[in-house]
Amino acid sequence: MGLMILAIAIGTVSAFAGISLIALINTMIEQHRADFGAYGWPFIGLLMGLIISGVVSQVMLSRIGHRIIYRLRLAMVNRVLGTDIESLEKAGDHRLYAVLTKDINDIGNAFSRLPIAIYNGLLLLGGIAYLGYLSLMFLGITLGVVVLGIIVDHFVSTKMYALYKQVRNTEDRLYKQYEAAIEGRNELRLDAARRGHLFHSLLEPAAKICQETKARADIYWAINLNWTVVLIFSLMGLIVFLGINQLNLGLEVVTGYVLALMFLRTPITSLIDMIPNVIAGSVSLKKINQLKLAQYDASWVSEAGDNDLLEFKSLQLRHLAYAYPVQDETDKKDDYTFALKPINLTISAGEILFVIGGNGSGKSTFSKVLTGLYPSTSGQVFINQQLLEAGNQAWYRSHFVTVLSDFYLFDHMLTEQNPLANDQRANHYLERLQIAQKVQVKNGMLSTTDLSQGQRKRLALLAVYLSPRPIVLLDEWAADQDPVFRRVFYHEILPELKAQGKTVIAITHDDKYFDCADRILRFDAGEMRPVESNALSASRPQPDIALTL
Ligand SMILES: Nc1ncnc2c1ncn2[C@@H]1O[C@H](COP(=O)(O)OP(=O)(O)OP(=O)(O)O)[C@@H](O)[C@H]1O
Ligand SMILES: [Mg+2]
Predict the structure, then answer these.
(1) What is the pLDDT of residue 206?
(2) What span, in angstroms and rounded, lies between the C-alpha atoms of 158 and 164?
């Protein structure tokens, strides 16, 4: 703020120097005298003042502009990090990418031009003051014309705003296609029809709408810019005709006026020039607000919840229920919105719990509610008899280490105590996971993550090994493992984790290994029921013939 005030103050000096130069030239013309002794040095002095204060204030102001973009970038990622998972999933990746790239840039552009706008505004104010000094009546006429300009400008800007909004909404569709082009690269490479559909039916029309709508918006902008130039020249003409013919004003007033108006043309057109940027910025700002991201919170990123992990004893769910938020406000009675029916369950430390059930029965949804990623719609959760509530969510979440179905593999191996995991320990577990010959950990960094899906899952499990957190939640971890390692997982790794004191909740379809669990919960259309152990052995299928052969 202090820097801003200083920059504006120096900008004012620069504006003053500029106007003074005009006044000086005007005086020389008026007196028809330009002897260097009297006017030369003040002229050179003002020039020096103009360049020094102009450069200094503009450098300072543009620095403020870049700082705004810097802060905006950090603030937006902070807000995304703080936003609840449900809202992020509802927004969709493409919208979030659009916000983090396009909207931040647009808002940044608008803000980074703001300092120059302030500078130009100062010049304009200085110029108007000088006009008033020359002739109050002319100042009145000028202000009248300015009001006319502002009315037209407002009308044009409103039109432009509507068009820019349309462009921005279409850009969300564009980003969706960008995402499809990158994420769906394999399918698109193999399938010409799909490629053609994406390109010609989805991408091209959206891009075309953007192009045409922006071009239409630019017509308004061009009209506005040239209309303003016409206004300035009309004003000059009016003043010359009126001043010389009707009012018989002195040459110095008329020339001074014309000179000052010429001088003010640059800041005025520069202000109008930035209108599209300001409009794009405000459309982007609105777009960001629509996403309903969390407010900026500096403490979010480093919020610690692990100080009190000492001893996990039990996790208790009482009538815990969850329903996905309705997709659309107008669609409130959506019968297809999936819901988990109230769950009553107590999980004790050191248990191995399997969660089973058909596709879409709610297992993964349950895993997200249990870990606190989704807020429950009703019911209560207690950890060591302490109720999960608004104030202790981070602490609650910090009990879990997960490999979810949509896991992301970070190439830094972090542990909570150490910024970087101990290489030796990590490499030991890589041996255990039988991928030590493919990947190593050096300075806490994985040597590669370009691996097969099964190998990537093993690396995700490495993070579980390295974590001190007491509850391990794995969503179909073994689904991509070969039969040999699948057996290692159920018969060796799970018991090892248990021996280390971990509580394991594993979502699985591997009925062959159901007997590795201490307890089994089955989901069926969102309803959870514990499975009796005798019911399980009766329903267990015969051994896989292909494997036993
Ligand atoms: N992000 C979401 N928004 C709204 N509904 C969802 C979302 N994700 C899943 N659902 C709904 O929740 C239901 C249960 O999905 P869930 O992923 O929990 O099943 P699952 O038991 O893990 O199945 P699978 O064995 O295929 O992994 C789905 O049928 C779907 O309708
Ligand atoms: Mg699932």
Answers:
(1) 96
(2) 10
Q: Measure the CA–CA gap between 521 and 363, rounded to whole angstroms.
A: 10
Q: Is 363 in the pocket of ligand 1 (CB under 6 A)?
A: yes
Contact 343, 377 (CB under 8 A): no
pLDDT of 549 = 35
Q: Report the pLDDT value the prediction gives residue 546, as an integer from 0 to 100.
A: 40
Look up residue 35 and give its two tokens. Answer: 């002897």
Sheet holding 314-323, edge to edge: 339-348, 314-323, 378-383, 386-387
Nearest ligand to the C-alpha atom of residue 334: 1
Sign for the pseudo-dihedral over CA of 23, 24, 25, 30:
positive
CB 508 near ligand 1, within 6 Å: no
pLDDT of the residue at 306: 54
Query: pLDDT tens-digit profile of 266-311?
Result: 888 888 888 889 999 999 999 998 888 888 887 776 665 555 555 8
Is residue 361 lining ligand 1, measured as CB closer than 6 Å? yes
Residue having the nearest C-alpha atom to atom 11 of ligand 1: 338
Instruction: Spell out the domains of the chain, with CATH numbers in brackets.
Output: 2-290 (1.20.1560.10), 314-548 (3.40.50.300)
Residue nearest to atom 9 of ligand 1 (CA): 365
**C-alpha span between 383 and 389 (Å, rounded):** 11
| Ligand having the closest approach to the CA of 89 | 1
DSSP, collapsed to helix, strand or coil, labels residue 344 as strand
CB of 334 within 6 A of ligand 1: the answer is no
- For ligand 1, whether the C-beta of 360 sits within 6 Å is yes
CA of 448 to the centre of ligand 2 (A): 27
Those residues of the chain that have pLDDT short of 50 are 538-549
